[in-house]
Amino acid sequence: MLQAETCAGSELGVGWKVQGLIVEGSVDPTDLPGQPYETGESADIDTVHHEPHDYGVATVGGWTFIADPEFRVSFDEQAVLQVSGTRRALAWVTNSVSTTHGFAWYLEGEMVRQIIYTEGELAYERGAPLSEEQGAPEPLSEDYVFEMVQRLTGVGWGAGADADYSVWVCTS
Questions:
Q1: Which pairing describes strands 165-170 and 36-43: parallel, antiparallel, or unpaired?
Q2: Segment 100-103 long-range contacts (CB within 8 Å, at least 24 positions apart)
Q3: Residue 54 to residue 37: CA distance in whole angstroms
Q4: Which residues have CB under 8 Å from 150's CB, separation 6+?
Q5: Among 153, 162, 142, 170, which Cα is nearest to 58's?
């Protein structure tokens, strides 16, 4: 899996095209939009995003990582809150092809920060910068998003990228 091997930065020129939601603790995937059911299959994160899967779900370091290829939950504030409740949650996107990178951070049932960069320009910003953003790589790349995953959740992106995801398919 080339992407997972180069996740810390694209040393070989390979980028990411992935997005998802990370929620503190355990999540019931049936609470995700689209009335998903578990297929019994497992896959790596690349397969979840490149095959016709609606979600991939893995537990890593006390957090539930939800790969969301169709953007069903990642940046839908109501859906994020339905799944996370008052627990900490991080919606994120990094797409090297469209050069779109960003995240949304939720605390106690509220979005406290959202920032999205597209083609090197600030596309959207909501909330005051977090102390964790100070000294992070420039927010124009996947390195910035992966660094924020580490700083906010305490789990390195490599652990999420290398996890085994259960595959979930939506009925609606």
A1: antiparallel
A2: 101/139, 101/140, 101/141, 101/142, 101/144, 101/145, 102/139, 102/145, 103/145, 103/148, 103/149, 103/152
A3: 10
A4: 156, 157
A5: 162
* Rounded CA separation 12/163 (Å): 22
Q: What are 121's two structure tokens?
A: 């320009």
Can you tell me the distance from the alpha carbon of 89 to that of 109, in angstroms, rounded to the nearest whole number?
9
Model pTM above 0.85:
yes
Q: Is the pLDDT of residue 152 over 90?
A: yes
Tens of pLDDT, residue by residue over 77-112, are 999 999 999 999 999 999 988 889 999 999 999 999
**DSSP state, residue 130:** P
146 residue type, one letter: F
What is the spatial distance between Cα 87 and Cα 24, in angstroms, rounded to a whole number? Answer: 6
Beta strand spans in the chain (E): 17-24, 36-43, 55-60, 63-67, 89-95, 100-107, 110-118, 121-126, 165-170
Q: What is the pLDDT of residue 14?
A: 55
d(C-alpha 70, C-alpha 66), whole Å = 12
Q: Which of 78, 86, 79 is nearest to 55 (CA)?
A: 79
